[in-house]
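Lab manual, section 2.4: Encoding a predicted structure.

Procedure: take the sequence of the chain (140 residues), apply the prediction step described in section 2.3, and record the output as structure tokens. A sample record is shown.
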Amino acid sequence: MGAVVAVRRPAALVAAVVLILEAAGILLLNWILSIVVARQQMSLAGLHPGTMSAGAWTGGALFALFLLFCAAVLLYGAVRDRAPALLPRIALICCAVVHGVLGALAVGMVGWPAFAAAMVVLALLVATLVGYGEPGPAPA
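Recorded output:
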């Protein structure tokens, strides 16, 4: 159990930094995608290109906010050396599941390096969740 305790803080800190960088990358990617859609006048099933552009930007911004929230939960847990509460823990589990699914999709569309990157983030999230275990009562 001592090895798990020694790894949980650095894993949470590294995972938080990686999620912050990933949020910036997702935001940048969706911003570029929205510009391309707007300039190319692309539409899908009759949707207006402005709507598609705003949708790409909004979707990327919401996903980036989710990743930043998960990073904040990890930073808070690492600084306090405590397990996250129930709802933030569920958010971290959802983030881990999303990275697992994205990794499975990335291997076919982008290649093995993208799969490896997604699996590293997944491993960091799982290591943090397992390292902190179940949230318990606060010590007296």
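Check your result against the sample. The longest helix spans residues 2-40.
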